[in-house]
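agent> Task received from the user: take the single chain below, predict its 3D structure, and emit structure tokens. No templates, no multimer pairing.
agent> Plan: (1) validate residues, (2) run structure prediction, (3) serialize to tokens, (4) report one or two observations.
agent> Step 1 OK, no nonstandard residues flagged.
tool_call: predict_structure(input=
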Amino acid sequence: MVWEYKTKTLTLKKSFWTGKVDFQESDLEMSLNEVGSEGWEPVSVQAIPMGTYPANQALLVWKRSKP
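)
tool_result: status=success, residues=67
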């Protein structure tokens, strides 16, 4: 079987007052469901660290069989 892959970077919101990442599960779910409805299967979700700062981005990877 031959696969094709798709990636997307999801930027997480930071709190203005605390500087902490305000992770909203609904943002991740919306991205996963949107692409999943096109036949893509999630493979990985990986936080992207920014040096010594907390990660404010996540890399999402999907795959599906190539027609």
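agent> Step 4: summary for the user.
Residues 3-65 form one domain.
agent> Done.
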